[in-house]
Amino acid sequence: MKTSTSRVVRPIVAIAMGAALGSLTILLPAFRTAPTPAPVIAFVPRTSGTNFTEDMHHGAEAAAKSAGYQIYWNAPTRGDDVDRQIAIAERAVNKGAKALVLGPTNPWGVTTMLNEFESRKVPVVVVQTELPMPTGPYLTSVAPDQVQFGRIAASRIVQITGGAGEVAIVGLDRGTPETLVRAKSFIEAMKAYPGIEVVAQAPGSVQTLEAEQSAREVIGEFPLLKAVFAVSANATEGVMVAIENMNPKPLILLVGCDRDLFLVDGVLQGRIDSLVTADPYETGYEAVHAALVGAGGHLLPPPLHMKAELLTRQNYAQIENH
Asked: Do 40-144+280-306 and 147-278 show the same overall fold?
């Protein structure tokens, strides 16, 4: 009886073991071919959620995808939170990012971190502003031509004012040095037009309410103003809101800087005369392209200046579609 039972059990066990081995044979190729995670480029702009930074994000993703990389994208919720930005960047690099693209909230506030990354041979590409330190094999930049910003704005204001009248500059901020470069370039260009007087150079802020208050003070102090050059996106929004909310509404022409959906709408609605901008998609693409060179073990390319252009209601469609 025992022998007959064993004769029945053995074939059943053999069949079960065969089925199990067959299943493992099917599963083993799947384990062997599990995809390796794509290497990472970290991109930490000043802040996120604006159309400008999202367009940079799209350009960055396109460049990374074409090379088999992925983008780690993170940023502070405030454009002046340098401590948070440093923490995000350090964490990304320490977790294995092959390179870093950084839009400094305050260029001088991140120099210690940049020096540390350079000593560790971590490739870093700075965007949105000028570098506060020399470039080198592991540090470069992809940023708008800030001098060109000032010249283009000056040319536009000469055109719309007829080359005469009082003009103010709003939005100067040492924490964002490109605003200082744009203002200086604007003033230099205006020296060729003695009929235009730059009567004020007002400070800026990353907070729209503070930028609006600064604009109100300038407009109140100089009632004969014909035009304002706002040297940042926040300053442009602040001046636009200040003009709209004043009663009676002053007839002041506004030339602003940088591209955001709210500001572009202002141009299309006639609330802003024009914006001096650089293409954010191309900025993001070129920044990651440079970072990929470093991630591949090569020396970073020299700094790249992105072309500036004037966005008006008349040429909006042409610029957006080129």
From this structure: yes
